[in-house]
Every structure is written in C-alpha cells, then in structure tokens.
C-alpha cells in the first residue's frame, strides 16, 4: 500500500527520497501505463506550485498524450513544436522561466507560466518526455532539473 511521506532536508535530499520512493513503487511492475501513471501521480504529490504533471510518448514522429495529473491537455504535439516538441527534437531538457516568451509555446492551460520538459531516452531512442507546468514564473530551479533528471533515470530503469 502506498503511503504519503514528508520529505525532509535540502532540495537534493528531498529528490533523493522521492526517487527512492519511485524505485520502490515501480519495482516488479511491467505494465508501462501503470508505471507512467504512478510516476505522474507521485511527482504531482511531491511538487508544489504545479498545475500539470505528465508524459507525452513518441508515436510516429509526434508526441501523444500519456498518463498525467491535471486538466485535460493537448493530445498531439509535433516534434519541434512548443516546449515539449523542442525537448523531443533536441533531446535536451527545456527549463522555461516564462512560457509566454517561448516562441511557439503551445498553451494547453492558460494558467501555466513556467515549464520544464525532460526527454526520456532509453537505449539511445527517444520514447517520450516528462512535462511539468506551473502557474508560478521561474518555478523550476537547477536543483529541480537535477532531481528530475534522476527521476527520469529511475523511470527508464523500469520501463
């Protein structure tokens, strides 16, 4: 049974606790929908000041909405379009302090002001992205980026 926990210590220590929890949560599960769903739910429970947490998965050279927590979202995003598409196209993390300044930003939720997107690459192949939106400008820090990179690494180990 899953139990919420209180994360303590520095931001890095809190992400370490989160990532250990994710590892235990996914251990032994082979269904990727269940893995992505629980990963999104866990991350949504952990993060503060976010309004959307979820995955877009590659299908025929475009990103297709996967498991998420938040308001209904855009279903398909072409590679190279918006923050998610840019992360997919470049295979690089996109940490955007103000999405309104990002050329071609796709606004699925008008309340979103900042965003971080991390590519999910397994065996050299892009399989999707982790997308997190916040109504707070400059919500995501370098410490968040580092912790989320580790989160994605734990996820990749299980999918």
UniProtKB/TrEMBL annotation:
Domain GAF: 47-153
InterPro entries linked to this entry: GAF (IPR003018), GAF-like_dom_sf (IPR029016), Phosphatase_reg/MetRdx (IPR051330)
Listed GO MF terms: L-methionine-(R)-S-oxide reductase activity
Highest taxon listed in the record's lineage: Bacteria
GO cellular component, one term: cytosol
SUPFAM superfamilies: GAF domain-like
Family (UniProt): Belongs to the free Met sulfoxide reductase family.
Protein name, per record: GAF domain-containing protein
């Amino acid at each position: 049974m899953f139990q919420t926990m209180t994360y303590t210590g520095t931001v890095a220590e809190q992400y370490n606790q989160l990532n250990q929890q994710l590892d235990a949560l996914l251990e032994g599960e082979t269904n990727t929908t269940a893995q992505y769903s629980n990963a999104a739910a866990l991350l949504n429970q952990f993060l503060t000041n976010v309004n959307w947490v979820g995955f877009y998965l590659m299908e025929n050279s475009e990103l297709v909405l996967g498991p998420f927590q938040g308001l209904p979202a855009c279903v398909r995003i072409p590679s190279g379009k918006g923050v998610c598409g840019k992360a997919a196209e470049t295979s690089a993390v996109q940490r955007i302090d103000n999405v309104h300044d990002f050329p071609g930003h796709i606004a699925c939720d008008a309340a979103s002001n900042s965003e971080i997107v991390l590519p999910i690459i397994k065996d050299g192949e892009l399989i999707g992205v982790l997308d997190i939106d916040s109504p707070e400008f400059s919500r995501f820090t370098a410490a968040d980026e580092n912790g989320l990179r580790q989160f994605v690494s734990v996820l990749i180990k299980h999918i």
